[in-house]
Amino acid sequence: GLFMTDYFTHTPRKLSPFRSFASIELFHFHIPEDTVIAVWNLITFKEQGGTFGDQCPDRSITVYFRSGAPSVINPLHMHFPRDTAVPGSFALTLTWTLPNRTTGVFNVTSPLPGDWFLAAHLPKDEGKISVKGLYEECQYLFQPQLIVQRPVNIATLYPGYITKQSMAPHNHSCLYKVFVPSYTLHVLVEVLRCHGAEGCPLWLRVRAKAPPLHNSTALDCQEHTPCQLSLDLPFWQHWYYVLVEKHPGVPGTISFQVTVQLTDCSRPSLAHPPFLPSSASMNMPRSFGSAGELALGDSPPPASPNGMKHPVPIPTASPTSERCWPVRPTLRNELDTFSVHFYIFGPNVSVPPDRPAVFVINLLPVLDNGGVLNLELQLNVSSLCGENATVFGCLNHEVPLMSGDNASVICETESLAGFLLSVNATASLSRLRIPYPQTGSWYLSLRSLCATEHGFEPCTNMTAEVYLHAYLSPCINDCGIYGQCKLLRTNNYLYAACECKAGWNGWGCTDNAEAFSYGFQLLSTLLLCLSNIMFVPPVAIAIRSHYLLEAAIYIFTMFFSTFYHACDQPGIVVFCIMEYDVLQFCDFLGSLMSVWVTVITMARLQPMVLYLLGAMLLSMALQMDRHGLWNLLGPSLFALGIMVIAWTARTIQRHHCYPPTWKRWAFYLCPGVLIAVAAVLLYTFVETEENYFYIHSIWHLLIAGSVGFLLPPRAKPTGCLGPLPQRKDCGYQLCINKQEELGLVDPAVASINSICTS
């Protein structure tokens, strides 16, 4: 037949090392129905400084695939919170085939239709803190492309009708699909009147949602007569695909007929006729049904050109095992993004002894699968009336699982996954968390059984009461006290993830294998805060030298640096006197202004205009990019340039080096410069996330110490004091040397050490 090909792509994105799910790059695709093959072309390339990064090291890239919701990944093998169900996903690691580019291909035959999500990340790094803009970083960019192919005009089977087909010698298979509405208990597919050269050399394969695969439910029609496939508990509101495949090497034309029968669970003894509305047969309000009831036969479906009515007998099980119980809806109350509560009508749920109580929770596509589905069951112990009863709950996706066995509760089958909850008098509370749940209908079936010497049996004359709390939340327990729940976005898709701190890890920041102790958190906070006391000596020196404005700036820096680091701690030892952003801005501004005023003071220029100019330039730079290297380094270099020009001008004017004494250079300037350079090197190349608290404390000590060495002594006016009164024939005049250039003694107590004769 004819095939249609569709192409989808995303723009390249920069990948980051994995720390938590908040650091991955998520890509959202949509695969159409009837797709027989999907091919992902995974393109990865390196960049450095706007060019190809041939010199960048090869770093492996891990890509995760999942249908219906984002992947719940755990590459660091951390612990998940209690009562958390972890859905599976497929992972692929890309290796480099070229110096700066590699391409991987991932094929999926007959993929499930709907939303598909790809998550990609780099391996975890060593946590080095790099200065932004210091050097050109290696960037690893990832771009996925999707190509899908789907057949055009797949033949549709209608329940209760026969479709005739002839398979030519050059054809290998025939593909059909049939829609299964809600409240369907059985699907029976049968191949009739099969004629071929060697009997009926056909394989009959059936699969839900997508065309069958080699491992789908199959039956060899040559070995089984009649050729019937019966599917129990089919997925509601989905297409089922039927593949009739010829044995390899069979010559000639094969003719056959295909028919499908659906069994309505409200009428277990009858095959579903095409004109009977299911909700009416259940004596239920129409609102309890679903949109799929129209496909059951509210209006008769058109017959296929070769179709005819052909009733097919269906084996009937006992009525108790095939009975259909009403599904009670829940009230959806949206509070915020990924904050949705599902309420039932009434304070408690009554679970009768003779039948289950079934509820449905509807999750909307795209809107609800980026958070966590939480389910809590709490038993009212007083309702047990002394019975040793247990209430079991089965949570299943897209179809309720109602076991007919009175001695056990099974929440899983070969084709249907489920989650089991149980509460009793001993353990009256049970929880279940499903991160990134698949959208659609989730069915909760509650059932009560009493424990006896022979196992579980149905209870008599006892109706258990449970409290049901179902809700969506962005993160598990809001990531606890050692994490932050972040709302993330990729294009038009929103999802939430935890970002942990203080050494805590895991999906809900509950893994304390590498967590910081309280004593360690207190020590790191005290080191970062108390190291700012080193600014007290520069303040005292500035006040003694009558540099009052400089002293005020040093006090400003010391104050805001102390309280910024007290507020910036990752653990619970945190104290914030203002908003975090205000404290950070004032800390950065004070640090840069301290450097600026110290350098301008060393240049011995008129300070007020330059101080005001520096404050404006630094405020602008911090507002543009608070962590950019050149936005912060530019004003500092500008101040150093002013100082160099001023010193050079004095050197030329006085015909000797400025400052003129070797002691000033040896005991003040050189040590101060060396201390400042050491501080910058530590801050730039040594500081990491693990050693931040003591390396940054050393940075505080060194920077404050360098200011104490570099701050010049107080400047005194130069020139002579004026002539002394004349004495006879000889007069004397006292002159003051330029003590501020020596920097060895305090100019305020400088002694008169030169006398010149007038």
UniProtKB/TrEMBL annotation:
EGF-like domain sequence ranges: 498-509
Chief subcellular location: membrane
Membrane is among the record's keywords: yes
Assigned GO CC terms: plasma membrane
Cellular compartments annotated: Cell membrane
Transmembrane segments: 515-535, 547-566, 630-653, 665-686, 692-711
Pfam families, per database record: DUF3522 (PF12036)
Protein family membership: Belongs to the TMEM8 family.
PANTHER family xref list: FIVE-SPAN TRANSMEMBRANE PROTEIN M83 (PTHR14319), TRANSMEMBRANE PROTEIN 8B (PTHR14319:SF6)
UniProt cross-references to InterPro entries, sorted A to Z: EGF, NGX6/PGAP6/MYMK
Organism this protein belongs to: Scopus umbretta (Hammerkop)
Lipid bilayer topology: Multi-pass membrane protein
Alphabetical UniProt keywords: Cell membrane, Membrane, Transmembrane, Transmembrane helix
Protein name per UniProt: TMM8B protein
